[in-house]
Structures are given as structure tokens and as C-alpha cells.
């Protein structure tokens, strides 16, 4: 679920991020935010469903990232994911990038 590129960690989420996958997502996100990377990119481009709990976990990870001096970035292209980020109030916490390349160049 995650890979390293230079000083950036990418967490890719594919398919549905529901209660069954939440523990794996949560662990990968925590590992990434507490790694030695200066930035973490969460790539939701292949995510068809994002649970409210996962969106809220993302908000909590943002707090931890800021405290650790890590820039947490989000890539989301699907309307379904964007909607959950909006409804939960998480969207304003992030600049959402259209691609991983754009997030890497930020």
C-alpha cells in the first residue's frame, strides 16, 4: 500500500476503503506520517469508495503530520472521494492535487 520516492512516501488506496480495509489504511498512514519522509502523498485516484471513518482518520493524520513537520498531500480525482472529503469537513484541510506528479512537484 505504500512506496518511497526520494523523500516522499506515497500511500495508494485502490478499490473500496471501507471497514474491512480501514485497519490496513490506518496502519499505512501512521507509518508514512511517522517515517523520515518530508512529505506523504495519499493517492485516492483508484478509490471507488471512501468511508467517513477513513476521511476522519485522514484529518487526524494531518494533525500528526503537521506536528512532525511532514507535508501531507492528497490526490483525488473521483467525485465519490471528493464528496466524502467535503461532507466530513476534511477537504479544507488539504490542497487536493489532480495527480501524483502534481503532488510530487508541489
Protein architecture, described:
With 106 residues, this protein is an alpha/beta fold. Helix content is 41%, strand content 31%. The protein contains four helices and five strands. It has helices at residues 22-33, 52-67, 79-87, 100-105, and strands spanning 2-5, 8-17, 39-50, 71-75, 96-97. Strands 1-2-3-4-5 form a five-stranded mixed sheet. The longest helix is centred in the middle third of the chain and has 16 residues, at 52-67. The model has no long low-confidence stretch (mean pLDDT 91).
Strand content: 25-35%
Low-confidence stretches: none
Helix content: 40-55%
Q: Average pLDDT across residues?
A: 91
Report the strand count: 5
Number of helices: 4
| Head-to-tail CA distance between termini | 22 Å
Largest sheet: 5 strands, mixed
What are the SSEs and their pairings?
Layout: E1 2-5, E2 8-17, H1 22-33, E3 39-50, H2 52-67, E4 71-75, H3 79-87, E5 96-97, H4 100-105
Parallel strand pairs: 2-3, 3-4, 4-5
Antiparallel strand pairs: 1-2
Concise synopsis of the structure shown:
By secondary structure, the chain is of the alpha/beta class.
Q: What labels would you give this structure?
A:
106 residues; alpha/beta; 4 helices; globular
Amino acid at each position: 500500500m505504500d512506496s518511497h520516492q526520494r523523500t516522499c512516501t506515497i500511500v495508494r488506496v485502490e478499490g473500496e476503503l471501507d471497514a474491512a480495509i480501514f485497519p490496513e489504511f490506518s496502519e499505512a498512514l501512521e507509518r508514512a506520517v511517522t517515517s523520515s519522509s518530508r512529505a506523504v502523498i495519499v493517492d485516492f485516484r483508484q478509490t471507488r469508495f471512501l468511508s467517513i471513518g477513513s476521511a476522519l482518520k485522514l484529518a487526524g493524520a494531518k494533525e500528526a503530520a503537521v506536528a512532525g513537520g511532514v507535508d501531507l498531500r492528497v490526490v483525488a480525482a473521483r467525485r465519490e472521494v471528493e464528496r466524502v472529503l467535503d461532507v466530513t469537513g476534511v477537504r479544507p484541510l488539504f490542497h487536493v492535487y489532480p495527480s501524483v506528479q502534481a503532488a510530487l512537484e508541489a
